[in-house]
Amino acid sequence: MIEAILLTLLALTTLFYFFFLTRVHIGLCRLTQHSPRLQGYPFISVIIAARNEETTIGQCLHSVLTQEYPINRFEVIVVDDHSTDHTVQRVQDLQRGYSNLKLLHNNNSGKTSAITLGISKARGEIIATTDADCTVTPQWLLRIASHFREGTVLVAGPVVYDNSPTRGSPLTDFDRIELLGLVTVAAGLIGVGRPIICNGANLAYKKSTFLLVGGFGTSSVDNDDELLMSRFLEKNLGTIDFMWEPDALVTTKQMNTLRSFLFQRIRWASKKGHYNDRTVFIELTLLYFFFASLFINLLVGFLWDTMVLLPVGLAYGGKIILDYFTLRLGADLWKQHLPIPMFFLAEIFHVPYIVIVACIAQCISIRWKGRIKTCESTC
After folding, report:
1. Is the alpha carbon torsion for 373, 374, 378, 379 positive or negative?
2. What single DSSP character describes residue 377?
3. What is the pTM of this model?
4. Which helix H or strand E contains 46, and what residues bound it?
């Protein structure tokens, strides 16, 4: 009886998973390219929140400040969030050569409050955000401006890892594959008109719309870019676009230890469950149920009833095939390497990893850049 219930749950959630990724495929095909040639150049304010980023902030700012965009049509605002290293000094050194580089100090704490402070001082009609450990392409601002058509309120973009020396280990390859998957799903969902995921390392939105919805609101979740996007959607204020072009790509530094990797993913997962749109919450819950039912049925098959393994194997095999073609689309779009052996190895660990990390994220507090981040418990 228990096996029948578990298999029924697996069958229903597998159908939803296939529907979900099929929709991602359709959305990727609907993404349109916009010409970077502009009739006018909207003023853009780039906001970068930084805390203890002395080793990366220089490269980040150099990439942002040397854009193929009129220097009098953009500004870069770095908001220092109580750094205890030489981050501030690095920014001040660069200010001597760039008149459009500004430095602010966050009196509160946290990335959300730092970005809010930067926006309050920004002159731009468009706010663009990236992280202090990222680098952008020379055409980044051109791409952002080209995607802001009439009625557009938010534009998201792809984020991938740079070609760091750590590449090649099982952990870093798994990390790269997973981030590629997240970006691919984000692009596809936006393309199909169902935005759920975005990344603040490559994001832009209208300042007027940000102010209209009350900014990030009163959420206790830090770094809630996706929640901001959901606030835009909730009030139906305009369209959301994804700039999929390779020259809109933002690269970031990769986590090089298992501890830092897990803490980052737990922090990301802690945002889930805070969406105002209940249908988004339901979709994410169904996805989690798919992974959980697949994991539980695997355990039942190996420890209790081997007859369960055949339907579980079919569901797992279908997942692998669909995952591969989804990732292949993303890899082709952003010219990323997708190692086949590592992909199959990653698929083995993907299910238990999602189940465990998502559960932990709702129940514990973690330390991030010297601060405790409390994940609101729903257990």
Report:
1. positive
2. P
3. 0.87
4. strand 44-50
As beta bridge partners, residue 371 has 368
Token pair recorded at residue 94: 């660069």
Nearest to 136 by CA among 255, 254, 247: 247
pLDDT of residue 144: 96
- The number of CA neighbours under 13 Å toward the Cβ of 51 is 16
Q: What is the CATH number of domain 35-163+196-259?
A: 3.90.550.10
CA 363/CA 185 separation, integer angstroms: 26
CA dist 20 and 110 (Å) reads: 33
pLDDT digits (tens, 9 = 90+) for 205-220: 999 999 999 998 765 5
Residue 198: its H or E element? none
3-state DSSP assignment of residue 371: strand
Domain ranges of the chain: 1-34+164-195+260-379, 35-163+196-259
- Match 């805390």 to its residue by tokens: 51
What is the chain's length? 379
Rg (CA), the chain: 21
**Hey, what are 39's tokens?**
């009739």
- Percent share of the chain, pLDDT over 90: 61
- The single-letter code of the amino acid at 288 is Y
Q: What is the mean pLDDT of residues 126-154?
A: 96
Q: Note the pLDDT tens digit of each residue in 160-198.
A: 998 754 445 777 888 889 899 999 999 999 999 999 999
Using an 8 Å Cβ cutoff, are 241 and 143 in contact?
A: no
Whole-number Cα distances in Å, 213 to 49, 153, 210, 231: 21, 12, 6, 7
Alpha-carbon span 358 to 272, nearest angstrom: 9
Over 75-96, what HEC string results?
EEEEEECCCCCCHHHHHHHHHC
Phi/psi for 323 (5° steps) reads -60, -40
Fill in the amino acid letter for 340. I
CA distance 369 to 113: 15
The pLDDT tens digits of the residues spanning 37-90 come to 677 899 999 999 999 999 999 999 999 999 999 999 999 999 999 999 999 999
